[in-house]
Design a protein that fits this description.
single chain; alpha/beta; 7-stranded mixed sheet; 12 helices
Length: 487
């Protein structure tokens, strides 16, 4: 680990990217710009930012405009004023982009998950490759100008792909039960009677259960009063087995009218093969609690990816897009190019989807995950698929990998698939200390990917970055990065 400290350029790059003189100059310019909320002015959109907003400049001050597209000319209305930028909304479009289309969902501009529905799909794919380029430009890892950024791999039909609907449940002012998503930057619930990006069965089950909650007068959670029971409904479908799991996330272990509710689910929704309850008491930003209980049917559902079968418990992570998941993991496998007899670590392993797909070539696969149920699923999945050379443990990659190395296990290859926050600094230190010959980074956040590459490129060269569109109609982008150790 000591060797790594001398190679840690994270602080250097942070200082370099701050560009203090440039920031001071911009601050002086901003002081001269007098703008008020509600003010309107014409604006040409120069590009789209990483969060899908259009970006233009008013007297050299950046203006972020949700829903505006590159090269559009609009009259915008200021909604907020910050020190170095403005936020605005479109008042009127003077010149429309040829890539603008009519969204399928009427609420596409109100909630997340549809934010690019007004942009045609080829342009969405180009945008997602550009999002990776923007992140690299911001953090500037070594050699980033010469990276091979491959065109984004998309879908033939970019709708009806999401295998999980996770909707908040509330009563509206008229006492009707609603289920949907919060409006952007608020806790105002937008009821979603339809949703074009969801697998149809998830919405069929969701709306039927909402009607049951209404009929049975179930106690729905009230955020203001901090009372009530049913907080969230989660419906997950398996694309290749037709299994469907329904989870009630509740404020307490109590579930009034449980018997009547389960009887109606059994009679009216035969496609539901698993019913669970997750208890998450009190006011919290977390959707899930630690206590999950079995109510009816099986305790898990089964999904297939390629030739492998995977068990999914209620809290286990699986990518939301089954078709593109196979594309993503095929790209990861291709980038890793594992050779017979090599050992591999599957970090942030989830239910073992990536690691188990490598087990037919590897001498040994080891993985880790912080959710115990997911680790149980991963080991059960290995056994169910007849895989004997893969083992998963509960814990973080930054804790377990150093322990394995100290015990004499030194992997030839590592594949990391971290959450949106990116890699833990200690894990980066460990990777650079043990220097596996092969490293693949599967990213769901181009910004944290680019930030992590600043450190990783001290010892690794980026061969290419392959973006994959896992979530059409949104600004989210996944990427597979092939890295090879420098000699």
């Amino acid at each position: 680990m000591a060797n790594y400290e001398s190679k840690n350029h994270r602080g250097y790059h942070r200082d370099r990217n701050q560009r203090p003189h440039q920031d001071q100059r911009r601050a002086r310019q901003t002081e001269r710009v007098q703008v008020e909320v509600g003010q309107r002015f014409p604006l040409t959109i120069k590009r789209m930012g990483i969060n899908d907003e259009g970006i233009g400049y008013y007297k050299r001050m950046a203006v972020f405009v949700p829903g505006a597209l590159t090269n559009e000319e609009a009259v915008v209305e200021v909604t907020s004023v910050a020190t170095r930028y403005l936020r605005a909304k479109v008042h009127r479009i003077r010149k429309t982009s040829p890539h603008r289309v009519e969204p399928r969902d009427s609420y596409a501009d109100q909630v997340g998950g549809f934010e690019l529905e007004h942009l045609d799909y080829p342009a969405q794919l180009a945008f997602k490759r550009d999002v990776v380029a923007q992140a690299l430009e911001r953090y500037q890892p070594e050699g980033f100008h010469s990276y091979d950024l491959r065109p984004t791999l998309g879908m033939k039909d970019p709708y009806g792909y999401r295998n999980k609907a996770q909707f908040q449940v509330r009563r509206n002012a008229e006492g009707q039960v609603e289920a949907g998503l919060y409006a952007e930057r608020s806790h105002d619930l937008i009821d979603l009677p339809t949703c074009s990006v969801q697998m149809p069965v998830t919405m069929t089950v969701m709306r039927a259960v909402v009607a049951m909650l209404q009929d049975l007068d179930m106690p729905i959670y009230d955020e203001e009063q901090k009372s009530g029971i049913v907080k969230t409904l989660v419906v997950r479908a398996a694309a290749h087995t037709d299994d469907v799991q329904l989870v009630f996330i509740t404020n307490s272990p109590k579930l009034p009218h449980k018997r009547e509710l389960l009887e109606r689910i059994a009679n009216e929704l035969p496609q539901v093969t698993s019913v669970m309850q997750n208890i998450n008491p009190g006011e919290t930003s977390l959707v899930w609690g630690d206590d999950t209980r079995h109510l009816a049917g099986a305790e898990a559902i089964t999904e297939k990816l390629g030739d492998l079968t995977f068990k999914l418990s209620a809290r286990a992570f699986l990518q939301l897009n089954p078709a593109q998941t196979e594309v993503l993991y095929d790209e990861a496998k291709k980038a890793l190019d594992l050779q017979p007899g090599q050992t591999v670590v599957d970090a942030y392993a989830g239910i073992g989807t990536i690691g188990l797909s490598l087990a037919d070539v590897a001498a040994e696969v080891r993985g880790m995950e912080i959710i115990p149920e997911a680790v149980d699923d991963a080991n059960a999945n290995a056994a169910a698929n007849g895989i004997t050379n893969a083992h998963y443990e509960v814990g973080t990659a930054e804790d377990l990998l150093p322990k394995w190395v100290m015990a004499g296990f030194r992997p030839d290859a590592i594949v990391v698939d971290p959450p949106r926050t990116g890699l833990d600094a200690t894990l980066i230190e460990t990777i650079l200390a043990i220097r596996p010959s092969k490293l693949v980074y599967v990213s769901c956040n181009p910004s944290t990917l680019a930030k992590d590459l600043v450190d990783l490129t001290a010892d690794y060269r980026v061969e290419y970055i392959q973006s994959v569109d896992m979530m059409p109609q949104t600004a989210r982008c996944e990427a597979v990065v092939k890295l090879t150790r420098r000699q």
